[in-house]
Amino acid sequence: MLRQLKEKRTLKHNLMLASSSAFVAGITDVVGLLAFLAFTSNVTGHVANLAKNILQQDFNDIIIFAIWLLMFMVGSFVSNFIVQSLKHKSYYRAHSVPIILEIVVLLFVAIYGHKFYKETEFERKVVIGSLLFAMGLQNGLVSNISGGLIKSTHLTGLFTDLGSELADWMHPKTKESEEVKNKIYVRLTILTFFIFGGLMGGYFFNLYEFKVFYFVPVILLTILYYDMLPLFFHKIFQVIYPVKTKNIKN
Questions:
Q1: What's this model's pTM, rounded to 2 decimal places?
Q2: Pick from 44, 51, 34: which is nearest to 208 by CA?
Q3: pLDDT for 130-185, tens place per residue?
């Protein structure tokens, strides 16, 4: 999921990355909404609130919403800056570091929410900002890896793209129908797993509250682990059959 770039990615790679990242975004968005009454995986609503507060000249909320928007953008900036800095060494390392950073942020939210959160307004704003930063990291990374095909938190754009691609696929003059059909599969996968993640997040938040955020890093760890499996088995094979492996190379 993380090793292959846009040119070498298969439909399977994109579907796996789309499903796992959209599931995480769905959980985060719904749990953030239930816990803090704010969306934490997208910024469309925050932009509308920013405009409203500017009209009402509510300067405190103007600053807060501006910071939240900035946190999402900074998350995407940091993610892509890391990728550009490390991709000459290893694409896997370049793509895994932003996920590790996202795991750290989500674990901070889980531990703080579970152990220390006193439901003050200041704490609420800080945690929302942290979640927006984490989602900015994820959205920037998956968009970079997939060449803009996957945006796991951006459902407004998803419906726009899905509508256009359905029109292309159904139009009799479309020549590359297989490529368009694969894009539709990816869009529908994102939508399905975002909704599924939201349902799971809402259900388990009612049972376990902030403990739900302990589960989200586990999903992200599976993304990292999946790409390590081939290397792991290769190393094991070398240990068990060192002579055969050497002969094969020769």
A1: 0.86
A2: 34
A3: 999 999 999 999 998 888 888 888 788 889 999 999 998 888 877 777 888 999 99
